[in-house]
Amino acid sequence: MNTVTLRANMAESESLETITEHERILQEIESTDTACVGPTLRSVYDDQPNAHKRFMEKLDARIRNHDREIEKMCNFHHQGFVDAITELLKVRADAEKLMGQVSDTNRRLQDAGREVTAQTEEVIRCRVQQRNMATTVEKLQLCIPVLEMYSKLKEQLESKRYYSALKTMEQLENIYIPRVSQYRFCQIMAETLPKLREEIKEISMSDLKDFLESIRKHSDKIGETAMRQAQQHRTFNSAVQKQDSLSCAKPLYGLNGQTPLHHNGLSTEAADEEEMDEEVLTAQDLVDFSPVYRCLHIYTVLGDRETFENYYRKQRKKQARLVLQPQSNMHETVEGYRKYFNQIVGFFVVEDHILHATQGLVTRAFTDELWNMALSKIIAVLRTHSSYCNDPDLVLELKNLIVIFADTLQGYGFPVNRLFDLLFEVRDQYNETLLKKWALVFRDIFEQDNYSPIPVENEEEYKAVVSRFPFHDAEIEKQQFPKKLPMSQSVPQIYSQVKEFIYASLKFSESLHRSSTEIDDMLRKSTNLLLTRTLSSCLQNLIKKPHIGLTELVQIIINTTHLEHACKYLEDFITNITNVSPETVHTTRLYGLSTFKDARHAAEGEIYTKLNQKIDEFIQLADYEWGMAESDGRASGYLMDLINFLRSTFQVFTHLPGKVAQTACMSACKHLATSLMQMLLDTELKQISMGAIQQFNLDVIQCELFASSEPVPGFQGDTLQLAFIDLRQLLDLFMVWDWSTYLADYGQPTSKYLRVNPSTALALLEKMKDTSKKNNIFSQFRKNDRDKQKLIETVVKQLRSLVNGMSQHS
C-alpha cells in the first residue's frame, strides 16, 4: 500500500515537473525569435518518452486559450472597426477627386517645367564645360612654365649659351617636369634632355679643341708680347739705375765709353717714350678664353669635370712637346731663336692665366711638372744649337734672348736658375767664337804689317799713336820730328783689338745678375784666353811662316816687348770698367807677360834657326879645291859674303835686348865653326892637300877676325873667338905639323892642342895620307917625302891607339 502510495506520489511529482517544463518551453517559444525555436523544440523530444504528446496537448490548450482572448478582443473593437470602414468609404470618393486634381495639376506642371528642364540641362552642360575649361586652364598653367622653360632651353642652345642651357635642363628635370610628368610631351622632353646634354658636351669639346688650336697659333704672338713687356720693364729699371748712377764718379761699366743700355739704336729715354705709347696687351687681349671657361663649367655641371681636366692636361702636354721641338735650322738666325722662345713663353703665359683664372683645371704642381720637362728640353736644345753657331754677334743676341726669356718667365713665377747656369755655358761658347773671330783679326793685322818702326812726321801723328797705345820713351820724346817709334804698326792695332775683345766679352756679362767681382773675373779669364791661346798661337804661327825673315823676327821681338809692357795697362783698363780693385783677394791676373815672353823666346829661337839656315846656304856655295898644291893667298869669296851678311844682320840687332843679340851672334859663330869642321871631316871627302888646309886656314882667320871685331857689343874679351877654338887648334896642329907636342901633351890640361880630339885628327890625317900615297910614285925618290910619309904612318898608328884607348875607357 505504501509502495503504491509512494509510486503515486512519485508519478505525481514527475507530472508536476513535466508540466512546469512545458510551461517554460512555451514561454520561451513565445518570447524567442522564430529562427531560434529549433533547439527549444529539440529539447521536447529529448525528454521522457511520450513527453511530446503531453507537450502537444499543452500546446493545443495554449492555442485555444489565445483564440479565446483574440475573440474577446475582436468583439470589444468590432464597432470601432465598422465605423472606421464607413469613414474610409467616405474618404475614398474625396481621394479619387483629389487624385484627379493632382493629375491635372501634375500635367499642367509638366507642361510648364518642360522648358525649364531644357534650360536646366543647358545650364548643366555649360557648367560641365565651364568646369572642364577651368580644369584645362589649371593644367595649362602647370604646363606653360614647362613649355616656356623648354623654349628658353632651345633659345639658349641656339645662342650657344650652353652653361645656362644646362642650368635650365636641371630646373626642368627637378622642378617643372615632375609637376606634369603624366603628359606624353613631358615624357618626350625628359627623354630628349640626356641627348641634349651629350650634344652640349660634344659642342663644348669641339669649342675646346678650337680653343687649343687657337692658342697654339697665337702662342708666338702672346710670347712676343710678354717678352717685349719684360724687356720694357728691364729697360725701364736699367734707365732708373742709370739715372741713379749719374751722381757717381764712375759707372759700373760701359761699352766703348758709352752707356751699355741701348735698344735698337735708340736711347733708353726715347725707347721708353716710344714703348709707353704702345698699348699694353695681355694674353686675354689676344686669345678668347671663354671656350675653356664654358667647357669647364659645362663638364662641372655634368659631373664629368675630372674627364675634362685629364683631357685638357693631356692635350696641353702634347702641345708642349710640339712647342719645344725646334726647327733644324734654328741656329742660323736670331729670328729662329726668337720664334722658339716666343712660342714657349706664349704657352706658359696661357697656362699661368688658366692656373689663376680657373679653380683646379691646372694646378701649380702640373705647371711645375710641365716647366721642368720644358726646361730640360730647352737647355738640351740650346746646348746643341748654340754649339753650331760661329758668329759671336748671333751668340750675343741669343744670350740677350735667353735673359729676356728667363726674366719673362720668372715674372710669372717659374724658376729660371738653370737658364742662368746655362748662360755660363753659352758664355764659354761666346768666348770661343770671339777667340776665333779675333784670331782672324790678329792674322789680318800681322799679314798687313810691314814690320818696320812707325814713322811719325809731326806731333799730331805721334799723339794719334800714343792715344791708341800706352807708349812712353823719354829719349824718343826728346827727338825732333820726323822720328820713328821702335814698334811696328801692328802693336797699337793689337792693343786696340784686345780692348775691343774686352768690350765684346763685357757685353755678354750684362743682365746676368752677377756682381762686379764676378764680371771682373770673367773678363780677366776671357782676356787670358785671348792672350795665352789666340794671340800666342797667332804669334807662333807668324814666327814659323817661311816668308818671315830675320828683320821681321827682330821687329816681332821688339813688338812683343812693348806689348808685354802694355799688359799692366790692360789690367788697369779692366779695373776701370768693372770698378773692382786689383788688390782684391780673388782677382785673376793677366797672363800676357808669359804669353809675350814665350812668343819672344820662339822668335829668338827662330832667329837662331834662320841665321843657321842662312849660314848653311852660304856654306853650300863653298867650292874648295881640296887637292890644290898651295892656297890662293886670300879668303874664299863665299866666306867673305857670309861675313858681310852677318855684319849687316847684327847691325839690325841693335834694337834687340843685349842678351838676345849676343846669343844670336854666339849661336851663328858656333854654327859656322861646326859647319866648317863638318866640311873638313865629311866622309865623302877622301883626300885633302896641305894647300887646301892652308886655304881653309885663311877662311878661319877671317872668321876669327870677324869674331874679334865685336859685331855685337857686350862680349867680354875673346869670348866670341872661342867659338872657333877647335878649328884653330886643329889647323895649327896640321899647319905647324907639331905632332910630337900633341902626342906628348895629350891629356894634359895645359896642352897646346887641348881641343883637338884624336879621332878628329886621325880622320883628317888619313885624308892627307891618301894624298901622299897618290903622289908616292914621284916622291919615293925624294928622301924628305919618304920621311914625311913614315912620320904620317907613325902618327896614324899612335892616334889610333889613342882612339882605341878612349873607346875602351868609355
TrEMBL record:
GO cellular component: exocyst; plasma membrane
Keyword entries, A-Z: Exocytosis, Transport
Alphabetical list of Pfam families matching this protein: EXOC6_Sec15_N, Sec15_C
GO biological process annotation, one example: Golgi to plasma membrane transport
Segments forming domain Exocyst complex subunit EXOC6/Sec15 C-terminal: 419-767
Location of the Exocyst complex component EXOC6/Sec15 N-terminal domain: 58-227
Function recorded in the entry: Component of the exocyst complex involved in the docking of exocytic vesicles with fusion sites on the plasma membrane.
Family, as annotated: Belongs to the SEC15 family.
Protein's name in the database: Exocyst complex component
Species assigned in the record: Culter alburnus
